[in-house]
What we know:
Layout: E1 3-4, E2 7-8, H1 24-40, H2 50-56, H3 59-62, H4 67-83, H5 93-106, H6 118-131, H7 143-157, H8 164-179, H9 186-193, H10 200-203, H11 205-217, H12 219-235, H13 248-258, H14 267-274, H15 279-294, H16 300-303, H17 305-313, H18 320-336, H19 341-351, H20 357-373, H21 380-389, H22 395-415, H23 420-425, H24 429-435, H25 442-456, H26 463-476, H27 479-511, H28 519-526, H29 532-548, H30 550-559, H31 566-580, H32 590-602, H33 609-623, H34 636-650, H35 658-668, H36 673-686, H37 690-693, H38 695-711, H39 714-727, H40 731-744, H41 753-766, H42 772-788, H43 810-829, H44 836-849, H45 862-880, H46 883-886, H47 891-898, H48 906-921, H49 942-965, H50 981-990, H51 1001-1019, H52 1027-1037, E3 1040-1042, H53 1049-1068, E4 1083-1085, E5 1089-1091, E6 1128-1130, H54 1158-1161, H55 1164-1167, H56 1174-1179, H57 1188-1196, H58 1205-1216, H59 1224-1241, H60 1269-1272, H61 1303-1306, H62 1308-1311, H63 1323-1327, H64 1334-1348, E7 1378-1379, E8 1382-1383, E9 1386-1387, E10 1401-1402, H65 1444-1449
Helix pairs in contact: 1-4, 4-5, 4-6, 5-7, 6-8, 7-9, 8-11, 13-15, 14-17, 15-18, 18-19, 18-20, 20-21, 20-22, 22-24, 22-25, 24-27, 26-33, 27-28, 27-34, 28-29, 29-30, 29-32, 30-31, 33-34, 33-35, 34-36, 35-36, 35-38, 36-39, 38-39, 39-40, 39-41, 40-41, 41-43, 42-43, 43-44, 43-45, 44-45, 45-48, ...
Amino acid sequence: MTSVAGKKVVYPSGCKEVNEDLGKDELVRRLKLLARAFQDMGQDDNEQYSGLALYLASDYFMDHQSKDVRLLVACCIADVFRIFAPDAPYSEPAQLKEIFMFLIKQLRGLEEPDAPSFKRYFYLLENLAWVKSFNICIELEDSQEIFCSLFQLMFSIISEKHSNKVRNFILDMMAPLITEADAVSQELLDIILINIIEPYKTQKRVAYQLAKDLLIRTSNAIEPFIQTFFNNALMLGKSSESEVSDRLYDLIYELNQISPNVLLSVLPQLEFKLKSNVESERKKVTKLLAKMFSDPGSALADQNKALWNCFLGRFNDISILVRQCCVSHSQFLLQHHPDLFKDIVEQLKVRQHDPEETVRMEVVNVILTVAKNDFSVCTEELLGFIKERTLDKKFQIRQAALLGLGQLYKRFVLIEEYNRANVEKISWVKDKVFHAYYQSNNEDRLLVERVFNTCLVQYNAEVSERMKRLYLLYATIDDHAVRAFHEMLKNKNLVKIMVAQLVEAVEINLEGEKTIPLNRRLAAIAKTLPETNKANDHMKKFAMLLKDDKRMRHFVKTLVGSDCNSQKAQDLVKEILKKLGGPGPGQHNLFYNSIKSLMERIAPVMFDAAAIEMLVKHVDETVRGLGIITDGIDSAAEKGVRLLVALSSVYPHYFKTEETFELLLSFLKHDDEAVADLTIQIFINVGKSLQSDHPNIYTVLLPILQRSAKLGNPKQSKHAIKCISIVCQKKETILNQVFEYVKKSLTPESANFITSIVALGHIAKLCPTEFAADIKSIVSKTIVKDLLMMDRTSGPDTTDSWYSEHHVTEETMAKLQAMKMLVRWLEGLQSNANNSGTSTLRLLYTVIIHEGDLMEKGMINKPELARLRLQAGCCMLKLAEYKCYGDLITREQFQALALLMNDSCYHVRLNFALKLNKGLMMLRLPLEYMSIFSLAANDPLKERRAQIKNFLHTNISKRRDYIKQNPSIGARLFHFMPEYAIPYAVHLLAHDPDLQSHEHVEILKNIKECLWFLIEPLISKSEDYNYSFFRKMLENIKQCKDAQDPEDEAANKKLYAVCDIALGLLVSKATNITLKDSNVEPVLPAKCFVKQAKGYMNTKIYVPKELVIEGNKRKGVHDSILSPSEPEIVACPGPVVNPLPYTPRDKTSKPTKTKKSKKDQSEPDEIESPGKSPKEKSKRPRSKKENIDSQEENQSSGVPKKRGRKSAKKENMAENKKTDSDLDSSKESQELSTVCSSSDLEENSEQEQPEKLSKRGRPPKQTNSNSSSANSSPRRRGNSSDNVTKVKQINGASQKTSNLKSPTKDNPKVTLGKSRKRSAPTSSEESSPVKKTRGARAAQMKQDSSESEPSSPVSLESESSSVKSSPRKKASSSPAASRKTLTRSKVHSESESEGNRTPVRGRKGAATKQLKVDQFSTKVSTRNVRRGRSLANGTTDEDSQESPQSAAVSKRGRGRRK
């Protein structure tokens, strides 16, 4: 009998001996019996088999070459552990290790569940797991080695083929080895943890699940070991021992997913890591925490507030990558954790303004993703962030924002089932998309067009649905979006026309008869595409393709043809792009993209004849009140017809069916006048061939047009006459009928008086020769004499300086239309025949200098005066666009016109600036008018200054681009080069009404601001700034004399002082001075400057010492002072649309300054006021008038309110609220222009000065209330009502107007100190002392000249006609016109409270003129200065008293910044 270790080997009953001598098969059979016996044994009385157990564990059996033998032996040994539990017969540690390593090797057989012997392997596993046999190894020194082998094997063999029973037994076998062990080695921990991170997590999902279940089951036991591991790795940096040390944060995330309790002591360490100085560490920890916080169901943020707050701080991390990581993971926080929504939104609000574009882009993408996944989560605040990013400075971000919003609109408005909440949430998207069209970049405009075609309307929708969507879209967008939509249509049509011209030119060149250069055409098209320089090359390549490929040329020609419909256009674009080849794989074909963008712009995929006809039907239903498309939309019918007007101007060839015209005729019969008027405009656009193509429609339309021209409102009459001139082939006959009717209605009593004036103006413009004689007579007798020179009614009493149009009296509306009529008449004449242009300009000039009150009767209220002077200014600008009239405008008239830029009324300033900018941008106004923008530096509103600055930048860029594109204009460069606006600005500012002398420091400081306002945009780009050119131009001015009054030494010194200021600005403020040779020798305009005597050299500094600028010395600047040379004087640039250069104005045409004769000087009582002292007579300073009516209010109110810029801004805001609908478009233009440029032009807000200090920090001047009444009385403005002078009949040009006597001589006592006002002053008002201002002294100057050449009303009638002057409510016939104060410390605003008025500044008038009997003249006051406007308390600004406090803050006549 065999024995092992002193123990006999006893076999169970029925089992035979096993030994080394047996063959394999026999050995297997005997082992099976033995295994079966062990399997059936219990744990009682089995001590006898210990020898057998030791014998089976010998090397022979465990190392046997047969796996079946090894398996059976393993099963027997496993049963031995069960039978002998808890004391196994194996006591030697080495033997135990060998046995368990043998068992582990046998467990590998579990890998193949389909194997025949799998059941025995499963039995082995079950036995080991049930008995927990491996727990014996816990006491062994090499236990961790055994466990690592076991765990490694289990994780490697487990697969999806295994049943849950197998997995559970494996888990039962492994779990106790952790829960009951005293230690878990790092190696064992690595084996477990590595299976829960990538790539094992996804590649071995069953192993991952096993590890996950194991960790969950052993979480409490394994936690200390995991904590130690992370503590060593995170805090101590001992990570080299572990295989997963470089995946720490992935481990933490997975452990948090599996068993958060395991990490309770690890998370505080992450807070420390979040504040690490190493960017990569912060990024990893931030990413980890973002995932942990954002997991669905995660309560980590609530459980660990400190860590959450620390994580929120990473949104402001200095690292871009960390901030970007925070933003990108906020998507899941927003979706899964509503309780954290507020915190995340606050962080995104800051990050959407992040200086790094990638972070801002991430914000946009995150919010859009959230909105697409769950729109209910996306609040209006989050969508507002996207709205802001549509104005981002980076196009890629703007593109992502706009496209994302468009996709949301398309999904929730057009595609998905209607949800009122969702639709209301994104109702603003369509407006915002169109607002982006105000961006100047071609990329933005193309993007808007793409979003419109694909998202807002969907070009591929069925035609009826497409037009229904378009109509609904147009009817619900705001006014800004409507204007952008119209502009989009115009731009697309313009590009389409240019491409058509290109194809035509290519075909002509191919015919060979003549050659048309293509470069300019190609450059023009390239300017409408992104990246103009590259697009230019692409267009040249495209032109070659058109030339060589006849089929391609045919495709493009058809695409831009008038017969191309929507479906055909889509097919053609596909064919054209297919021929281009498209971008290759992984390539970005720039040429392909450029041509694709071009095709998108020119292809009529949205509109064709069928679409227009369907749209007209939809509008017709709304007009008749039958449509349901626009239910609940205000003015839906009018908006629909307005849409048709816009489309008819771009696609007139699509309005061609009889049915369409019949429906349009039905619109003319609609009760709404606006609908009828807009319909007439449609016929203007599409009716060119109506008489020949549709005679039936023409027959019905003509009587309607005639009736509208005669009896319609002014707009209808205007458009009806235009329509007649286009539709009718013999327009003169039809217009003659209208003219005969209109003549009879030209009386104020007629109900159609205003309509008749409008009709007359347009007839005069369209047919200037046919009705010349009749119109001349009407203009002379009716328009000027009976309307403009007569004041019959007075407007409602109001303290506002502006009110809506429906409040304006009919008489004032008639006067406004009368001024327009005069301009249209002159537009038709196009010549100064019979001095018509000269007289009209003088009339308009007089309206301006008299503050809108032509005859100065005082019957017109303040808001209507503002409208009148604004209209006069706009009319002068219109006439200045024509060379024949622009040459007639004198310097005095120009200067008076320019001061409208500083008018006291906000709406006058706004609309005048818009009109001026429009003329300059269209290159119609001469360059000199750009100098007027310099006066905008005085505007009290920051937004207005920003808007004008934007106008300047745009004008400068446009003119420079025009010069680059037209190199042939070299000889007339001074007509276009924006730098030549500086001489005009210098001349204009040198004639500032408040500039008394060249040593007037305060006024010169303001002039400095005005100069810099103009110069700064000119020199902002270094490539366009030539210091040498600028300096030489200014120094040349100092070598000239003022052409306005060459012999006036004081005027010349003021001119030189302004030049010195400009030169100082070039050195002190310009930061990009470069000295380079100028290819252009600076020239000066002849109308402003005349040469000095030969050899004259002016090197003197004229500005006061306080203003002498010691600029920072720059190398090469002060060392290379340009020596003044003899200036070149050229003719003044005229309207740039005129191709001919200007010639200097004849000296005889210049206005001459009236000089007193010796006789006049010897009769002081006829010329000067009785109360004037000799000292005052010699000084002849300029002054502001005072208002006696306001004295009592100023005295009773005590110390007036301090008026700073903030209060001025509030008052202007209050004034803006009172505007009416007729100015909406102007305000919109201002607002949008300010928003597009606000980021570039925004200025720092200026704080208010202390109440007792003036702008420059000096104490305010104190007035002496006890000053003599003689010195404080305002100058007389006109005759007393008791002393009306009868105007003599004018019988010929030879009659001397100077023979008229001054009324002051007849009765000086009555007129002395009396001021014009609407109501008689009280006794206290008349006796109140009034401060003597510059305006009052200026009045004396004007009185001197006016009494030598007194004013006389002159009519348009023949020389034999006579006119009587109307009674005047003024005390003198020669008032000093006063320019209303517009200080930035306080605007003379409409909302200004009574009793707190800031005095106004005097306006510089033109040199006095001798009255001439021209073809027509108006009553021109030779005082040549503007009359003061009425203040809010009913007084006039030229008479208002200036309190000490208000004098301190009122720096000068025009508004200034405080």
